[in-house]
Design a protein that fits this description.
There is one protein chain. This protein is α/β, with parallel strands linked by helices and about 375 residues long. It folds into two domains: about 5-65, DNA polymerase, domain 1 (Orthogonal Bundle); about 70-340, Aldolase class I (TIM Barrel, Alpha-Beta Barrel), CATH 3.20.20. It contains eleven helices and 14 strands. Helix 10 links the parallel strand 12 (about 265-270) and strand 13 (about 295-300). The relative contact order is 0.13. The structure holds iron/sulfur cluster. The site of iron/sulfur cluster has 12 residues, from loops.
């Protein structure tokens, strides 16, 4: 439902402070209280904000709104992974995947409803792009899952409010195709009065929107992952249309220039598909591509999506591929596939109920970024 009211959860701390002091005429500390309610406690209504006066809450109800995502469905995998489906205020469906392990609690976050990138092996691509998610909807997934995990595990101690420890932006959508909203979300998620995530614990993955990689490096401080999936242009052109615009050489050049913080590496994701990109020659070419980039490679055995026609590489071949990279001096790991049984694994997020006929009113084009 369109609204003239200000979407408070999408505002940066500075913009929220301006709204509270300039528009509402309140003291700056009220902005801090409000920010904490929204981004630390994950409040979903002004009524919950019991330390704000009733007249202020009434004013907030009149002039502002709290846009939240609402849990619509939850599916639990035998490996502990939980796929949450959320509904936006306009009825769109998005998915977030919670992956607990003994060391960390990670959430895979979506940034768009559907995706425009058209990767041939990916279920999300079949939806097309419906619209960008707002900062409120991006951070709203984190707040909602923090609430769920709190209830699930009855978490106590200092982490009680915010049990999630790590975020990966690898859900539905291409994060750098929604750059401004991503950037605002990253600042909200790292704010000390909000969820307070460390930059070391947030990774953003891109298919390689080359000009946006430069902006991402200059304007944010979190970790970069590249969804590479091929060792030459011929194959990448075929499976990832973005490669027709920016070739692998352009992408590697952007990676070489990326301002890495000390001790960090760029993660290269490589989904292994039988007979497509998993030969010994592919491994050798990949090692050459990465020889002058601080890199680690995550090898992911493809999760088959009905109708897309690609198949998973078998275990022996995956191990041989990893070993070849290892011998060539490239750190490579075969990543466990989480949530395979509930279609929560990499490239499998696609809500069948999303209306594919919805067309965005304006083309979504960050400067120079469209493939
Ligand atoms: S793999 Fe990622 S970028 Fe490619 S279509 Fe799927 S969601 Fe979009």
């Amino acid at each position: 439902m369109p609204s003239e009211r200000v979407d408070l959860a999408s505002l940066s701390y500075e913009a929220l402070t301006e709204f509270v002091t300039q528009t509402l005429g309140e003291k700056p500390f009220r902005a801090k209280q409000l920010f904490r309610w929204i981004h630390q406690r994950g409040a979903s209504s002004f009524e919950e904000m019991t330390d704000l006066s009733k007249p202020l809450r009434a004013q907030l109800n009149e002039r502002a709104e709290l846009v939240v995502v609402t849990k619509d469905l939850e599916q639990r995998s035998i490996d502990g992974t939980i796929k949450y489906r959320f509904k936006t205020h306009d009825g769109k469906l998005i998915e977030s995947v919670y992956m607990p392990s003994p060391e960390r609690r990670t959430l895979c976050v979506s940034t768009q409803v559907g995706c425009a990138m058209g990767c041939r092996f990916c279920a999300t691509a079949t939806l097309g792009l419906m619209r960008n998610l707002t900062p409120a909807e991006i951070v709203g997934q984190v707040h909602a899952v923090n609430r769920e995990v709190r209830a699930l595990e009855k978490t106590t101690g200092p982490q009680a409010l915010r049990p999630l420890t790590n975020l990966v932006f690898m859900g539905m959508g291409e994060p750098l195709h929604n750059f401004e909203n991503l950037k605002t979300s990253l600042a909200l998620l790292q704010h000390e009065d909000g969820p307070n995530f460390s930059s070391r614990h947030i990774t953003v993955s891109t298919v390689g929107l080359v000009p946006m990689i430069e902006r991402f490096g200059a304007e944010t401080n979190v970790k970069l992952a590249i969804s590479l999936n091929a060792s030459n242009d011929e194959v990448r052109d075929r499976i990832m249309p973005v490669n027709k615009k920016w070739k692998i050489a352009d992408l590697m050049e952007a990676c070489r220039k990326f301002p890495l913080k000390q001790g960090r590496r760029i993660t290269f994701e490589y989904v292994l598909m039988a007979g497509v990109n998993d030969t010994d020659d592919d491994a050798a070419r990949l090692a050459v591509l990465l020889r002058d980039v601080p890199a680690k490679v995550n090898l992911i055995q493809y999760n088959e999506n009905p109708g897309l026609g690609y198949h998973s590489t078998v275990n022996d071949r995956a191990e041989r591929f990893r070993h070849a990279l290892d011998l060539a001096g490239v750190a490579a790991f075969i990543r466990a596939n989480r949530g395979r049984d509930i279609a929560a694994a990499c490239g499998q997020l696609a809500n069948s109920e999303n209306d594919r006929t919805f067309v965005p009113l304006k083309p979504l084009k960050p400067a120079n970024a469209d493939p």
